[in-house]
Amino acid sequence: IKLNIGKTFSLDEIAEAHQLMENNAAGGKLVVLP
Hints:
Number of domains: 1
Order of helices and strands: EHE
Distance between the termini: 24 Å
Radius of gyration: 9 Å
Number of helices: 1
Shape: flat
Largest sheet: 2 strands, parallel
Helix content: 25-40%
Structural class: alpha+beta
């Protein structure tokens, strides 16, 4: 199984991750790390 990870975010960057998701600009899956 291959996953296309668009970007990895820390919890401090969750607002940026959410904005990318809303704008369909992620370019792959978003990963949030603790």
